[in-house]
Each structure stands twice: as C-alpha cells, then as structure tokens.
C-alpha cells in the first residue's frame, strides 16, 4: 500500500494544494457536508501528528495534557503545581506534598482520542513520577500520488516518561523528564528519546496575592526517522507567570516559542474556586494545536472552558474547546491525592 507521507512535499490532490497544504476553505468546512468534513479533519490530524513539511514530527507532544490545564487555555508553565505539570513544566512537580495519581481521556474529533496516565511520589529525596501519553487515530484511508483510494492504514503516537523534581532552594523547584517517543504510520515505526527541563520559582507575596514564575524547555532531543527521512521533535521554549489571590481566584499567562516551526503563542487562563469543592475555568490560546489538537481555522478554536470538583482527596475535571464546524473537543481527568 502506498501512503502519502507528510514529511515529503505532497503532490496536488483534490484535498491538497500544490504546496502540500490544506486549503483554508476545506479546513473550515465550507461547502462540505458534516460527513466529509469529519473525514477530512481526521486525515488532517494525522498530518499534524506525523513528520511535517516544516521539519517537525511527533507533534502530538504539543497537545495539552489535563482537563484543568486545558480549561485554563494551557497557561500552566507557572500556574501548574500538580501531576499534570509533568507535561507542561516538570519543575512544578516539586510542589507535590502528597502522592498523586491521575488519568485523562480526550475525545478530539472523529475517531481520534488522546489519553494520559501518570503517578507522582514525593520523597525526602525529591519527587519521582512516571507517565504515558497515547494518541490513537483509528482506521484511515490511504491515497496514492493521484489522490485515489488504495486501502486503509492506522496511525498512533505514544510517549513513556519518567520524571524527577526537587526543591533546591526554599522557593525554587527544578525538574526533568526523560521520554521514549514512538510514532507509527501504517507499517513504519520510528523512535526517539526526548528531555524536558523546567523550573518554577515562588516569588512570594505581591500585592494581595502570591506570584510564581516558570521556565521550561520541552521535547529536547534527536528527531525521528521515518521513510528514510529524519524530522525534528517539536522543541518548545516556554515561560509563564501564575498569580493566586487568597479568595480562590487564580491567573496564568504563558508565552511559548517553537524554534523549528518558526511560531510563537500566548496563553491566558483563569480559575475561580466558587467553593472549596468547585472551580470554574476559562482560557484562550492564540495559535492552533495547543488545546484543540488540530490546525486552528478560526479564533474560537483557541477558547477553552471547564470546571473541577474535588472531595475526599479525589478530583474530577472537565474541559471543552470548540472545534470549528465539527463540534467541540472534550477532556475528562480523574485524580487522587493520598
């Protein structure tokens, strides 16, 4: 079976321009019924998660982990102080004071789903953690160079990671992740090892609340080789601020630069604890992919909203992000501190 691979310049087809890009009117679903739109975006998600023409691969690593973090628009580099920090800024895991286990399931679009499971264990030597991320695409249609259907194939991505974080100064936490990354497209599979480095510094009281700052370098490592071509991992340089007010109102602001992709993004989020057991969240990310998991085709796709409930050491979080004319993307997270 011949499958068009996104890491190479793509020939013109009914769904691709001569430059190998997706026409904006098709991505927005103009002139397409719901069925074809779903099929088209499902294929677009595969393109987003495989080696891109810009030289990046394993782009599933960009998709946000944790319904709480996504509900705040992904502004979590400094605001995060829980298990989900493993994916945003491993330095935040130094703030764990109890053992924490968590899982997330995200229904993105069509048959595409994204999952995460993790565990964090604070000790007198620091905080140790482990986690797994998995993106499944389901069955997809293959096309030859003329755009004709020539069978089906599957695609998936996975990352297995171990983490360590420690408070090295009274207010400074440092952390590191080591991840084994696997990308699979049909019969082709590629592997790589990636590192995440992060720090979170509690600046203490500033005005009526407390301020924290975070800095992280994510997905640092060699690229993945598929179809006899190597592509870079999606390197991310992130910095952020988190501000917590005493009456349960939290703010997060992040800036991320993606050197290999030549792009940057800003995320802004807020969280309000209406009562100790219930929190409402809202956020916005300026560019595609961070919280929706697909190419951004309208400003609404950067929005996020959600809520969280907790009691007896257990937590349930939910977030929703618009997916243009294809509906909404939903995430559910379960967590336990003990």
What this model shows, in words?
By secondary structure, this protein is mostly beta strands. The chain has one domain: Porin (Beta Barrel). It is about 10% helix and about 55% strand. It contains 4 helices and 16 strands. The chain has helices at about 25, 35-50, 65-70, 85-90; strands spanning about 100-110, 110-125, 125-145, 150-170, 170-185, 190-205, 210-220, 225, 230, 235-245, 250-260, 265-275, 280-285, 305-310, 315-320, 330-335. It has a 14-stranded antiparallel barrel with strand order 1-2-3-4-5-6-7-10-11-12-13-14-15-16. Strand 10 and strand 11 (about 250-260) form a beta hairpin. The radius of gyration is 20 Å and the shape is globular. Residues about 1-55 have low confidence and may be disordered.
